[in-house]
Amino acid sequence: MPGFDDTACWLLLHRAPGLGGQSVKALLEQFPTARDVVQAAKQRHPELRASTRDFLQSADAPVVQPEREWLEQPDHHLVTLADPRYPRLLGEIADPPVVLFVNGDPDVLSLPQLAMVGSRHPTPAGAEAAYAFARYLGGLGLTITSGLAQGIDGASHRGALAGGGGTLAVVGTGLDRVYPARHRDLAHQIAETGALVSEYTLGTPPRAGNFPRRNRIIAGLSLGTLVVEAAENSGSLITARLAAEEGREVFAIPGSIHNPLARGCHALIRQGAKLVERGADVLEELAPHLSVELRPAGEDSDTGRRPQAQGPDDLDPDYRRLLTCMGYDPVSVDLLVDRSGLTPEAVSSMLLILELRGYVAAHAGGVYVRLSREIGDE
Fold first, then answer.
1. Does the predicted TM-score (pTM) go above 0.85?
2. Distance (Å, rounded) from C-alpha 214 to C-alpha 220?
3. Cβ count within 10 A of residue 55
4. 314: which of 52, 292, 310, 350 fits an S-S bond (Cβ 3.0–4.6 Å)?
């Protein structure tokens, strides 16, 4: 077909209306290459819908020129359904993407992956848990896959990078955009050591409908999905549902009954998701797919938490008492004064010191939360 090589034909099939992954798979059983499928459209083959034939018949080279120019740049790749680099697990889902645009290393697509998802507006404890779990599990050989969104997604990517592991970001825009813009530097770091992935053509903006479809790729690439914090109607639950429908593992971290961002996780647990308190809880299910050896409980382990200069036992007694009074639910200064018997001035000063040392975090509404410190299999 003049003017169209196989890459251009794949880009046309990707753009064509009425064609999804399963349709393209079926066509490739009849026609050896994407170029042959496009040629069949020129001949008005009955296997193709009228809208698909009309698009392919009228398309010309400029339609795919932006993607062709993008692919000429270093570390930019197109991974098609017929490409041996196309990840096997993703190809097994009900609606696999026809092509994947990849900025980074396409081989990362086929590494064992754990999806980590959750709220865009997590509590400090939730963000800390995502960071720590990703750092620990990434350091043991799991590639951490998420969606580059603010909140739990960003914390998960950063944790994986901090632990020296791989991370992969599946985005809901074209790869010529970074959304949200505040994650531009993070996106560059991910591309350098892992990969940015999208099924969307260049110039695609962050439309609301893109993200549920993006979520099916996150779930499809991964052996399992870990939900860290999620409200009852969170988009993260879509990812978990898609993972369950594809027979993948679903994990959820429980939280306080007073935290609305824990309700989605609690609902998943009631529906059969595995309750997760430690990294070992995830590894017990996924270890057969990894080149790691689980350590028995009680042995020293790298928990993946952020470095701390001291442990709670090294704090002064008043500081330890204040932490005990906090518990693990959000708590106000006034309530801590009542529980501890300390003066408001003393409590405020101690909370500042504890926050600087990483034991607590300030949260919206003037409350404080105690940060979890045990993520591994201790």
1. no
2. 10
3. 20
4. 310
